[in-house]
């Protein structure tokens, strides 16, 4: 699950990089602007980002030894 979330986060980051540098939205170009499928892709990227935040804090807890179960 962590690897899948990381892959989706990288895809989202690359899309945002394309938007910022070239004003080109790859998701919209592939699936249409705000179609049902493109909205699902955007939602999955958001969920993966939340999962990434959880992974970040879990990693931090393991390294510091605080609050470890």
In which range does the helix fraction lie? over 70%
Give the termini distance in whole angstroms.
21 Å
> Tell me, what's the shape?
elongated
Please indicate the percent range of residues in DSSP E strands (runs of 2 or more): under 5%
- Tell me the structural class: mainly alpha
Kindly provide the radius of gyration, computed on alpha-carbon positions and rounded to a whole number of angstroms.
15 Å
In this structure, how is the largest beta sheet organized?
Answer: none
Total beta strand runs: 0
Please count the helical segments. 3
List the helices and strands in order: HHH
**Averaging pLDDT over every residue, what do you get?**
89
Total domains, how many?
1
Which stretches of 5+ consecutive residues score pLDDT under 50? none
Work out the oligomeric state of the chains in this entry. Answer: single chain
What is the topological layout?
Layout: H1 2-22, H2 26-31, H3 36-64
Overview of the molecule:
The chain has helices at 2-22, 26-31, 36-64. By secondary structure, it is an all-alpha fold. The chain has one domain. It is elongated and about 45 Å long. The chain contains three helices and no strands. Helices cover 81% and strands 0% of the residues.
Which terms summarize this structure?
single chain, 69 residues, mainly alpha
In short:
The chain is 81% helix and 0% strand.
């Amino acid at each position: 699950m962590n690897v899948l979330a990381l892959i989706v986060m990288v895809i989202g980051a690359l899309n945002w990089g394309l938007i910022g540098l070239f004003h080109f939205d790859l998701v919209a170009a592939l699936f249409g602007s705000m179609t049902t499928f493109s909205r699902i892709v955007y939602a999955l990227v958001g969920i993966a980002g939340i999962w990434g935040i959880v992974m970040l804090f879990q990693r931090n807890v393991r390294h510091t030894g605080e609050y470890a179960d």
